[in-house]
Design goal:
rRNA processing, SAM_MeTrfase_RsmI_CS, alpha/beta, Cobalt-precorrin-4 Transmethylase, domain 1, five-stranded parallel sheet, binds S-adenosylmethionine, RsmI_HTH, Methyltransferase, Cobalt-precorrin-4 Transmethylase, Domain 2, 10 strands, 289 residues, elongated
């Protein structure tokens, strides 16, 4: 942990998570930090002004968004180096997660300023925690490209990824994105959509991609609200570990050179997902030829 050394008069940069819908999710520690810092850097000062009003905090606000981040970082760093504590918040959830703040945090660290997270809501973590998909390995990809061709290319590149995939998506693209997942990754790929999480109309849609697309199309509110899209990772056959992607004959030749045929066929079967008997026969042919 990075703690301040005695004599270090620089301020601390707090990265404060705020609610993704339900205001009761703002933690007591977040409220305390927001009440105590000298300045709050916010993605949209009008939007965050409402949250701060709700908790009775009145502080100078600095706008820090994607379009001005580089320019604003210097003046925020000057405040930190001058001893002021600063909090960074975004419109919703955890700053830097598909939100501004990366340049500020990077540069603050480079200047030796203490950066401390005040953890809390994050749509991707909330969605994954309730989706029922494997979470031991997941790949968060932020937003997919807005244009169909770019989106399909991105999905095609992820087709064989075995980790659970997580995307953010806007309501006006959600139907197109689910349709593209069904087409590029297959209609039977399991997906889960987390919609309006922590809000009144929180809904989880889950099932095979084609089923979820149908449910979403039929739901009159299907394309409203905010969405997290989660896709089950590829299984062995989808990941191309079956015959074809792996040179099975080369694998068998290598194994047979070191091991008895039966053992070689068993290991090759584990690696490729192909049947043991089929591999045993093929190993025999290779040995005889
Ligand atoms: N920093 C935020 C976080 O920690 O989750 C994410 C900011 S990103 C600009 C906004 C996207 O997050 C939305 O388009 C949506 O995909 C997702 N999102 C945010 N709030 C959500 C909610 N309540 N339910 C579902 N998705 C949400």
């Amino acid at each position: 942990m990075q703690t301040k050394k005695p004599g270090d008069n620089r301020g601390t940069l707090y990265i404060v998570a705020t609610p993704i819908g339900n205001l009761e999710d703002l933690s007591p520690r977040a409220v305390k930090v927001l009440s105590e810092v000298a300045v709050i850097a916010a993605e949209d000062t009008r939007h965050s002004g409402r949250l701060l009003q709700h908790i009775g905090v009145q502080k100078p606000l600095i706008a820090l968004h994607d379009h001005n981040e580089r320019g604003r970082v210097q003046s925020i760093l000057e405040k930190l180096l001058g001893g002021a504590d600063v909090a960074l918040i975004s419109d919703a959830g955890t700053p830097l997660i598909s939100d501004p703040g990366y340049v500020l945090v990077r540069d603050a660290r480079a200047e030796g300023v203490r950066v401390s997270p005040i953890p809390g809501p994050c749509a991707l973590v909330a969605a994954l925690s309730a989706a029922g998909l494997p979470t031991d390995r997941f790949l968060f990809m932020g937003f997919l490209p807005a244009k169909r061709s770019g989106r399909r290319t991105a999905l095609d590149e992820l087709r064989k990824e075995m980790a659970t995939l997580v995307f953010y998506e806007s309501p006006h693209r959600i139907l197109d994105t689910v349709a593209d997942i069904a087409e590029v990754m297959g209609p039977r790929r399991d997906i889960v959509l987390g919609r309006e999480i922590t809000k009144t109309f929180e809904t989880f849609y889950s099932g095979e991609a084609a089923q979820v697309l149908a449910a979403l199309t039929e739901d009159p509110h299907g394309n409203r609200g905010e969405f997290v899209v989660m896709v089950r990772g590829a299984d062995k056959s989808e990941a191309g570990l079956m015959a074809g992607a792996l040179d099975v004959d080369r694998l068998l030749n290598l194994l047979v050179a070191e091991l008895p045929l039966k053992k070689a066929a068993r290991i090759a079967s584990e690696l490729t997902g192909m049947g043991k008997n089929e591999l045993y026969q093929r190993a025999l042919e290779l040995k005889d030829s």
